[in-house]
Structure formats: structure tokens, C-alpha cells
Design goal:
alpha+beta; Thiol Ester Dehydrase, Chain A; six-stranded antiparallel β-sheet; 3 helices; 6 strands; 19% helix; globular
Length: 146
């Protein structure tokens, strides 16, 4: 794995949290807690903006949080020469939900770290109950300079 984003330094957590300001993950309140090559842990405190009108967390909010966790993990885990990435496939299974005031934890792990692709598995867990909210898998295509 290459240090392709040296501006992130040895502890990328503060920079990952700062760079998302004004973008969807920042607007949703995603907070990166731990980040290292092949692993990222984050959380979000569920507020009204995460909700569907039925009073439960919107599925799109869950996907945005899990995809962001996997994406940040990919960013700090790119292979030598990799300049970036893009999501080319994702899948999720929803097993539970959360309500306003709850906290959702996201944990993403690198399942495959190839030269052209990375596959990430992520899990969203309801912090207060410990129950799994969603299982998520995505494939990232590694981008190289032309």
C-alpha cells in the first residue's frame, strides 16, 4: 500500500473529518473515529435529517454512511501508484433500523486489495442495542494517473 495522500499523515482521522465539511458525509454528521490501511470505524448521531417520514432512519442515509466509510478506507489503502478510486458496485442488506437520537456505528474492512480493484465490507450497528442495521459490500475501481 502506498502513502498516496501524504497530507493525511500517520493519523488520518482529523484530516478525514475536516475534508468532508460541506460534502454529503459532513452534512450527514459522519465522524471518523479510527482509520488505518484496510480498516475504518465511524459513527453518526441520528437526527431528523437522517429520517424517513415514517420515523425510522432512511435507507439512503445508511448507505451514504457505509459507502463513505468504505470510501475513506479505500482512500487511505490505495496500492502503489493509485491516484484515486470510484465506486463501481455496491450491495446492502437491511436488518434493522434506528430512530432520531440513536447512534449508528459503521465499521469497514478491506476484503480484497488488488491493483485494479478493492472490495470493502462494512457493517452498520445500532450502538445502544448492539443490533446490526445493515450489511454492505462495495467494489472500488482504483484510478491511476494518465
Amino acid at each position: 500500500m502506498a502513502d498516496v495522500f501524504p497530507e493525511l499523515g500517520d493519523n488520518p482521522v482529523p484530516q478525514l473529518n475536516a475534508m468532508q465539511e460541506g460534502f454529503l458525509p459532513g452534512e450527514l454528521g459522519l465522524e471518523v473515529l479510527e482509520a488505518r490501511q484496510g480498516y475504518l470505524r465511524s459513527q453518526v448521531k441520528v437526527t431528523k435529517k437522517h429520517m424517513a417520514p415514517n420515523g425510522f432512519m432512511h435507507a439512503a442515509s445508511v448507505i451514504a454512511l457505509l459507502d463513505s466509510a468504505a470510501g475513506y478506507g479505500c482512500r487511505i489503502s490505495l496500492p502503489e501508484g493509485g491516484a484515486g478510486f470510484t465506486t463501481i458496485e455496491l450491495k446492502s442488506n437491511f436488518l434493522g433500523t434506528a430512530r432520531e437520537g440513536d447512534t449508528v456505528l459503521c465499521e469497514a474492512r478491506l476484503a480484497h486489495g488488488g491493483h485494479m480493484t478493492q472490495v470493502w465490507d462494512a457493517v452498520a450497528t445500532h450502538q445502544e442495542t448492539g443490533k446490526t442495521i445493515a450489511l454492505f459490500r462495495c467494489t472500488q475501481m482504483v484510478l491511476y494517473p494518465r
